[in-house]
User: What shape does this take?
Amino acid sequence: MSNFLEPLKIKGKQPNHKTKLFAFIRNYRIENRILLFDMAKKLGYESAELSGIETSRYPVPNDFYHKMINAFHFTESEKKELKIAISEAKQ
Assistant: This one.
């Protein structure tokens, strides 16, 4: 009999909350008071898709960087940080 308090073991790739991309997107959303649902909608994704991208369960789409910079207002340093985070996530 399994203990219901044990974490669920899900088949497939587990979320990675330690990536730069996860940290960048989540911090940007929190600092700007943007819900995941709202960001996903503005980017043309479902909430689950954006969540999967940010947690590395889904691959980062090739047009993700351009969608992000066209949909939101980033400083030049934020754009650079986003580009690096996406590059690292794709490795």
